[in-house]
Design brief:
The protein has about 375 residues and is an alpha/beta fold. It has 15 helices and 10 strands. It has a 4-stranded parallel β-sheet with strand order 2-1-3-5, with helices on both faces. Strands 8-7-9-10 form a 4-stranded parallel β-sheet. It is globular and about 65 Å long. The protein binds iron/sulfur cluster (SF4).
Length: about 375
């Protein structure tokens, strides 16, 4: 049995759940196939003529991913699994009103599926079962029932097996997230020890896809600045307490993950995390620069532009936005903007670090880690 999963949208932050879940059901990892990174060639070869009227660029790209899994595999897949993810297992859950996904993201599979059914059933023609479970990953107690309902006939599943596989999925996701956060902590520790700046990316998970985010952060990293993604910022108690403790004691927020001071309608998971990331960036001394990515016509991002920029800039941290990203990689203009960012980061980081450190309590937990940190410069997390 071979299962194909389109590597799109919120799969970028939940892939380990799906790998853990399917592996626990006896599907070997080499039979779990993800589509490639998004590219123009992928769309032209596999998605053309099956497009959607959705103006959202990351959703449009899904046709190429579906097509690649159907037509572009040496070893055919038996199942195309494209979950409709309704909510996400965010670290902010319990501190915000909800952790829902963008509705376009959630309904994307239905939208794209139509392009493969409009003339004839392309899935059936290719001997592929199309499965698109509606799944509330933010509410683990609901997930076994949802996945059992959707997959019981396709994978011949019992309820007990599904419960165990879902648990394995969450364990795999948690292990991966913890590993990434640990890596980010090592990067921050290196920065703290060497008094060096790093750059934080504020973006949605699918901006990690080189075809959606255009690897702008990699260009900056090539200039020697470590990159952190907000999704994997370390959330250890000691660090959170150092950064937010005073505000909690003053009663301005209830916990380090409380964003009600800046974003009262905290329903959307990725939006909540972006706002939280802006708060973290404003406080963490070694984050001297934030780069914000947003895709063309993103309705979810529009209301967040001003608040994120204001939060970050109020602390003196540098802020640069790459908005309206779409299929075109404007290499020339990215190069010029990257050079501008590098100029400002080099010129102002020392002062930014000093100013932000002065606003925090004296004992930094990262410097207590420093003894165990290797001397070599870290990579991105
Ligand atoms: S969050 Fe924005 S870019 Fe992403 S799918 Fe939703 S509307 Fe599109």
């Amino acid at each position: 049995m071979r299962v194909g999963i389109p590597k799109v949208l919120n799969i970028w932050s939940t892939h380990q759940f799906w790998v853990g879940f399917l592996t626990a059901l006896g599907i070997s990892p080499e039979n779990i196939v993800f589509s490639s990174d998004t590219s123009e060639d992928q769309y032209r070869e596999y998605g053309k003529g099956r497009g959607t009227v959705d103006c959202c660029y990351p959703v449009k790209c899904m046709s190429g991913h579906y097509g690649e899994l159907i037509f572009g595999q040496k070893k055919k897949i038996d199942i195309l699994l494209s979950p409709m993810i309704y909510s996400l297992p965010s670290f902010l859950r319990g501190h915000v009103l909800d952790t829902l996904t963008c509705t376009r993201v959630m309904a994307g599979p239905e939208n794209i599926k139509a392009g493969f059914l409009k003339e004839r059933d392309v899935f059936a023609e290719n001997g592929i079962r199309y499965v698109s479970p509606f799944v509330s990953l933010g509410e683990p107690e609901k997930v076994p029932k949802q996945l059992h309902l959707a997959l019981k006939d396709v994978l011949d599943l019992s309820e007990e097996e599904t419960v165990r596989a879902v648990e394995a999925g969450y364990r795999a996701l948690e292990t991966f997230n913890q590993r990434m956060r640990q890596k980010s902590r090592e990067i921050l520790t290196w920065c703290a020890r060497h008094d060096r700046p790093c750059i934080l990316v504020l973006a949605r998970p699918y901006h990690m896809d080189p075809g959606i985010g255009h690897e702008i952060e990699a260009e900056l990293q090539a200039h020697g600045f470590p990159i952190l993604w907000m999704q994997y910022f370390p959330i250890d108690e000691d660090l959170m307490h150092w950064l937010f403790g005073e505000e909690i004691r003053a009663g301005r927020i209830k916990s380090p993950f409380d964003i009600s001071d800046v974003w009262p309608s905290s329903y959307s998971s990725n939006t909540n995390e972006i706002l939280w990331g802006a708060k973290v960036a404003a406080r963490c001394p070694w984050i001297t620069c934030v780069i914000r990515f947003s895709s063309y016509e993103c309705g979810m991002d529009q209301p967040t532009y001003t608040p994120t920029q204001k939060i970050v800039e109020a602390s003196g941290t540098l802020y640069f936005k790459f908005g309206d990203l779409d299929a075109t990689k404007p290499a020339g203009s990215i190069k010029i903007r990257v050079e501008t960012i590098v100029h400002y980061v080099e010129k102002y980081s020392r002062d930014i670090i000093r100013r932000k450190l002065a606003a925090l309590p004296p004992r930094c937990p990262l410097l207590e880690d420093a003894a165990s940190t290797s001397e070599s410069a870290p990579l991105a997390a």
